[in-house]
């Protein structure tokens, strides 16, 4: 019995990766076709009714959502791991697709009623393949972390060696940190960066040849420089490892040709979709020329291994709303307008790096090739957490980040990480960076640390920087987002108590 279920499951999830036969529609920036039948405006009416219902029936929650909308509109967000999703992406997450339960893949589902969502998933797959020039795409991973786990757990056995960039050199928790299942279940070894803050390929090769990992991971969360995926592949081949390229942070630059693509160098490429792809929470697994290499378990190809691994091995039902949102985001990434955004991301980061250096800041690796500017605050006698908090008080949102060799914990740190994704979406590029750097510098030169985590900052500086931030935000509103009517109250984000059950229980009908 159990065995036959297992066979049924694998028959479904062994279905060959689909895509290709459905010409992807490129709605933005492509010559216009016929607009689809609008379904009588049912989507719009339902969405509006939902907002209205929330506002009147659950004002506490509605207020929080509205405050978050305002906070984003009225702050300069430079969190490198974030971006801004278009309202079309938001809309995909809020339709009746949320009610559709299924398992499996398009054309091979465990449930009826999937004709429409099959088309949605096929479009997402086609777009992912086209945007990245990939031969295979799996759009079901619930996150970038899940995408990594899908690859790692399908390919490896407990105790196998994986090799990734050390956490404090800019690596990611899911690449073998002891704090994550990836480092608990596998034997993890790491490589770092050299004194210049760069990944040293000779060091990567030395560690790989010494430890002979089964999986070599190239990819980072806080690495401001270009990654040489071709060199990583040469080392993987020499050491007998598979190569996983995790482009979560740079996927938009890769798609736009602003960073070399790993697709045909790596056996597997993973990404989260909410960072540079300006999409929903979620992940992708992509494969290039090695998609049809044999799987190590002798059952089919590497892509069929991933197909089985996403479902049923690692995940259950896919989030069809998120898959629709990924499809929508990917269409924008394919448009000429996005290439412009990607260029602005890189040029803006380069300009920000230059302006901060001019004002005396020390940058890890001395500068940037991508969207990240990582500042070492130790020479200024500040911790990352003090800088993060002081900047936030003034309307500038960044994140504290460990730097290579950081003696401080992840909750304190010696660095802050700036990123330009969100600013670029708001139309800000190199021209705006001198002003942004001035504001950052105004805060960081006025802040007086009391201890590692607390500080004093004179209210005059706070008021003045907040005013200037508000003016910049007003000049660069978030495209497509309604501007909040009233400014954010000073206590925004400091919600104290909220009633637990805001809805009145409906009376039983008599
Ligand atoms: C952000 C990130 C992830 C994790 O993505 P989630 O979707 O947040 O799970 C994985 N790898 C790298 C390199 C990242 O930067």
Averaging pLDDT over every residue, what do you get? 91
The class by helix and strand makeup works out as alpha/beta
- The number of E-state strands comes to 17
* Radius of gyration (Å): 24 Å
**How many domains?**
2
The appropriate CATH architecture of the largest domain is 3-Layer(aba) Sandwich
Under CATH, the homologous superfamily of the largest domain reads Type I PLP-dependent aspartate aminotransferase-like (Major domain)
Bound molecules: pyridoxal-5'-phosphate
**What portion of residues belong to β-strands?**
5-15%
- Tell me the overall shape: globular
Q: Enumerate the spans where pLDDT stays under 50 for 5 or more consecutive residues.
A: 1-6, 12-16, 18-24, 490-507
Classify the fold: give the CATH topology of the largest domain: Aspartate Aminotransferase, domain 2
Strand order of the largest sheet: 4-10-9-8-7-5-6
Largest sheet: 7 strands, mixed
Give the fraction of residues assigned to helices: 40-55%
Give a concise summary.
The protein has 510 residues and is α/β, with parallel strands linked by helices.
Any overview of this molecule?
By secondary structure, the protein is α/β, with parallel strands linked by helices. The chain is globular, with a radius of gyration of 24 Å. The chain has 2 domains: about 100-335, Type I PLP-dependent aspartate aminotransferase-like (Major domain) (Aspartate Aminotransferase, domain 2), CATH 3.40.640; about 335-475, Aspartate Aminotransferase, domain 1 (Alpha-Beta Complex), CATH 3.90.1150. β16 and β17 (about 455) form a beta hairpin. It has a 7-stranded mixed beta sheet, with helices on both faces. Strands 11-12-15-14 form a 4-stranded antiparallel beta sheet. It has a two-stranded parallel ribbon with strand order 1-13. It has 17 helices and 17 strands. The chain has helices spanning about 1-15, 40-55, 60-75, 85-90, 115-130, 145-155, 180-185, 200-210, 230-240, 250-255, 300-315, 320-335, 335-360, 385-395, 420-425, 435-445, 460-475; strands spanning about 75, 105, 110, 135-140, 160-165, 185-190, 215-220, 240-245, 270, 285, 360-365, 370-375, 395, 400, 415-420, 450, 455. The model is unreliable at about 1-5, about 10-15, about 20-25 and about 490-505 (pLDDT under 50). Bound molecules: pyridoxal-5'-phosphate.
């Amino acid at each position: 019995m159990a065995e036959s279920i297992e066979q049924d499951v694998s028959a479904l999830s062994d279905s060959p990766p689909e895509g290709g036969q459905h010409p992807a529609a490129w709605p933005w920036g492509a010559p216009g076709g016929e607009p689809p039948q609008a379904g009588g405006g049912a989507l719009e009416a339902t969405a509006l009714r939902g907002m209205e219902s929330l506002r009147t029936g659950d004002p506490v929650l509605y207020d929080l959502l509205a405050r978050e909308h305002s906070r984003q509109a009225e702050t300069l967000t430079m969190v490198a791991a974030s971006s801004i999703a278009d309202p079309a992406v938001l809309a995909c997450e809020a339709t009746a697709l949320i009610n559709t339960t299924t398992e499996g893949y398009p054309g091979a589902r465990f449930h009826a009623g999937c004709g429409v969502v099959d088309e949605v998933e096929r479009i997402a797959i086609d777009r992912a393949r086209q945007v990245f020039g990939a031969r295979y795409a799996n759009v079901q991973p619930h996150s970038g972390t899940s995408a990594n786990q899908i690859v790692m757990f399908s390919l490896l056995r407990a105790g196998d060696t994986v090799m990734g960039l050390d956490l404090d050199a800019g690596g990611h928790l899911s690449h073998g940190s002891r704090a994550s299942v990836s480092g608990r279940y596998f034997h993890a070894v790491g490589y770092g960066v050299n004194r210049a803050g760069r990944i040293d390929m000779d060091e990567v090769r030395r560690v790989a040849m010494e430890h002979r990992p089964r999986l070599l991971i190239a990819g980072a969360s806080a690495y401001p420089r270009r990654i040489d995926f071709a060199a990583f592949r040469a080392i993987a081949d020499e050491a007998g490892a598979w190569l996983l390229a995790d482009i979560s942070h740079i996927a938009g630059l890769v798609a736009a040709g602003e960073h070399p693509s790993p697709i045909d160098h790596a056996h597997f490429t993973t990404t989260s979709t909410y960072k540079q792809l300006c999409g929903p929470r979620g992940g992708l697994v992509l494969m290039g020329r090695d998609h049809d290499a044999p799987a190590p378990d002798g059952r089919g190809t590497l892509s069929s291994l991933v197909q089985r691994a996403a479902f049923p091995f690692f995940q259950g039902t896919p989030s069809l709303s998120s898959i629709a949102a990924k499809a929508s985001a990917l269409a924008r990434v394919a448009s000429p307008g996005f290439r412009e955004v990607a260029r602005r991301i890189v040029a803006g980061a380069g300009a920000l790096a230059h302006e901060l250096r001019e004002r005396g800041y020390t940058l890890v690796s001395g500068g940037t090739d991508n969207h990240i500017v990582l500042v070492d605050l130790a020479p200024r006698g500040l911790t990352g957490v003090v800088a993060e908090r002081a900047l936030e008080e003034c309307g500038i949102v960044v994140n504290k980040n460990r730097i290579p060799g950081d003696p401080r914990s992840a909750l304190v740190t010696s660095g802050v990480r700036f990123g330009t994704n969100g600013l670029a979406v708001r139309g800000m590029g190199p021209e705006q960076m001198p002003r942004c750097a001035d504001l950052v510098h105004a805060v960081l030169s006025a802040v007086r640390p009391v201890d590692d985590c607390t500080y004093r900052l004179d209210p005059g500086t706070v008021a003045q920087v907040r005013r200037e931030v508000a003016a910049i935000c007003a000049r660069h509103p978030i495209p497509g987002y309604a501007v909040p009517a009233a400014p954010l109250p000073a206590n925004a984000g400091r919600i104290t108590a909220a009633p637990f059950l805001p809805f009145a229980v409906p009376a039983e009908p008599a």
